[in-house]
Amino acid sequence: MVGNTLVVVARPEWVSGGGPWGSTFKVTLLNLSDEVVVNPVITFKVEAKQVIQNNYGLVWTRSGEVVSGRLVAERNVIPPRASTEFRLSVRGEGQDLGPLPRDFTVNGRPADPPRDSEPPTTPKRVRATLVGSALVTLGWDASTDNVAVAGYRVTYSKVGGGVAQTLSSTRPGITLMGLSAGSEYQVSVVALDVSDNVSGSSDTVKIRTSAAPPDAGDWDVPRAPFVDYTSWPTPRVSEYGREAGLDGFFLGFLVARPDGGARAVSWGGNTTLVDSEDGQSYSGDATVSDYGKRDIEAFRRSGGTVVLSFGGASNVPLEAEETDVATLVATYAAVLRNYGVRHLDFDFEGAFLHDEDAQVRHLAALSQLLAVYPTLKLSYTLPADGAPGSLVGFNDGGVRFLQKLSSAGIEPSLINGLLMEFGQSAPVDALECCVHALQGMHAHVSAAFPRWDAAKVWRRLGACPMFGRHPNGREFTLEHQRGLVEFAREHQLGCLSGWDATRDANQGRLPECERDSGGDLSRCTLTPQQPFDFGRCISAHGVKGPSQEVVAE
């Protein structure tokens, strides 16, 4: 069937999450060939009465009943014998949403499933590859089919009368979440081919979840701006802390290393780094590197705490590249040992908040990591907005990720909101935007973690405004920062952060940071201030005490 006719099969299905638009359909594109499919043109038909709108994954146009488009850049490559997907929301007339889309083509070739009546083989050797308190990762031997296996249905229930639930996977493996700690579950799997023929059921296996891990407690680094730790000249948190009166910093970013490798995480994605002060060259591999260690140790001796941050807006998180959960766990454990920290932050933005497979790998890895380091304090930094009538709080990807965290049994010590680049409908005043955003964040976190009372949610929230001028022209001033300190004090906010301490240090002392010079926003705040003024404002938040840093073993 592959040959010159069927290269990619398109399989549409309704899924939850359509919101006010009524419903959402997901289209899985399965590459049946042994060649990579790059940036394909996709067409299909919808009913004339159906109104569609972007959800994620496809850039499209419509002419009558025909929709034509291409996959978004981060998903426009379909590897051999693998799949990708896109989602669109649909609204019909009244309650009638109409049928799923039909008559698919990919690069002009038919892509609807073929007529076929032969089922795939039965999945064999269903087994648990990772067990947590609220999640279990399963694997099994892949089925085969005369055309192609499209995926699997996994049915599971709690032993002793639990309600059976069913999930789907396109691969011979899945992670079940939202399970009860210390409970036994029974699981079985069937395979489906591209024409929806169903195999026989696998043997039923029983799996017991582990005991619930302890809550690591509230965040204990309340005054901690971010530092772009790979910028030039090389920042010194020991100096920044002394000048600004700060005892905490987020150091970013640790990201997927471009050359891969068993431990593919490095500072800024660099294989090597040169320290501008000592002129030495250091390995970028954060699992073994000595980069920054002398500076970090000097900061610790003064009572400071560092938080290592993974991800960032323009970087690729490790989970987006590394698919083996055991390797992820080993990598994070190696970083903890190498830098002797017990605070980790994950700055997830952009495409990663729509990459559900990568998110599940992250949750599985962190669940295992917490079993080894139960006192590890986790922070998640996510985009937030304060535009009433448009978006208040976290975006849809962030909200879904918070729900996944809760379902995985992971209770972060901090959920930090990136307060920058507010939408067009946001108030003119940047502080007002921040307040709206934080109130929305509180509502979203309360919904995701219903066992947390309102006061606890505030203690687990952080605010990370962009100091000074924003790329869209909005400006967060020192007066706004002072107002945010008052808000944080009133609500007992868990952390005041900010982007970033390097820009705060440069403004007022570098010629290129003159307010009207058209300077680089990545290096300067371009707002009236002296060096470290934003940091000094933040230092007023909370009660300064001895370092809580404990070296991980």
TrEMBL record:
InterPro entries: CBM2_carb-bd_dom_sf, FN3_dom, FN3_sf, GH, GH18_Chitinase, Ig-like_fold
One Pfam family it belongs to: fn3
Gene Ontology MF, one: polysaccharide binding
Region (Disordered): 92-124
Gene3D superfamilies for this protein: 2.60.40.290, Glycosidases, Immunoglobulins
Domain of life according to the entry: Bacteria
Residue span(s) of domain Fibronectin type-III: 119-212
PANTHER family, A to Z: BIFUNCTIONAL CHITINASE/LYSOZYME-RELATED, GH18 DOMAIN-CONTAINING PROTEIN-RELATED
Protein name: Fibronectin type-III domain-containing protein
Taxonomic lineage of the native organism: Bacteria, Pseudomonadati, Myxococcota, Myxococcia, Myxococcales
